[in-house]
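Format notes (please read before filing issues)

Several people have asked whether sequences and structure tokens are stored in separate files. They are not. Every record keeps both together, in the order shown below: the sequence lines, then the token lines. Line labels are part of the format and must not be stripped during preprocessing.
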Amino acid sequence: MLQRKLRFSNRWMFNKVMMEESVCRHVIQAILGVEVVRIDYLNSEQTIEPDPGSRGVRMDVYVREQDGGRVYDLEMQACAEPLLGKRFRYYQAALDAKELPKGVDYDQLPESFIVFLCDMDPFGYNLPIYHMERSCMEVPELSLADQSHWLVLNARGWEALDDGDLLDLLRYVQTGKAVGPLSQEIDQVVARANKDRKWVDRVFSISTIEENDARRRRIELRQARAEGIEQGVEQGEQRFAALASTLIGLGRIDDLQRATNDYGAREELFQEFSL
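Then the structure lines:
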């Protein structure tokens, strides 16, 4: 029987690979062309193990340069996202809130980069990279100079790039072929992670739970729209998210699977935790 393997484009694998500091620095340099000497991980507890219950501010890879102070949020997007703009807005707000404690002036906000690495072209213009900078509609050359930068990488556009690390990275995301130095470095970590069968099986189990939960929510939302009770469904989603987070924290994955597929079991667990 062939063993199931995870690709780099799987977001849990992406998180695990990017926990290798040398790989993470190499990827940032390939994408942005900036020299990164050393980084600190700001959400390492979220990237080591899969956690579908974490529905709050969950950034895939959130790091800061030790010397320059710039911060980077790198997100893997392996499926179509129709509201990518609002996701950028959400992550920027979350990042700025984390970086600016109460009482600190705005000028202390660090330069930030939010990057979505997509396995498809989200905009359909066949570009390998989209730089989404805010500008004035009346005066396009007017810059706010807010030092926040949004980028979208389209892995399917890798052939349009000149040879180099960025082409190597996007080609690997799209095809899985390790050709250049960066993709070979990533592929070694991917291969090593896939040998951890307990972790791989957990990722597949969690992915199944997420897919079932997403399917359930789509069905409930369609029904709610038909019945005019959409607000109630949103409250139900928040309630289930709280339950999922609690069960994951307790290691009760089997109960989470039951709650996802069995309405009666879900209600019993709601009562158990007073949700």
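For reference, the curators noted about this record: Residues 266 and 272 are 10 Å apart (CA to CA). The chain has a mean pLDDT of 82.
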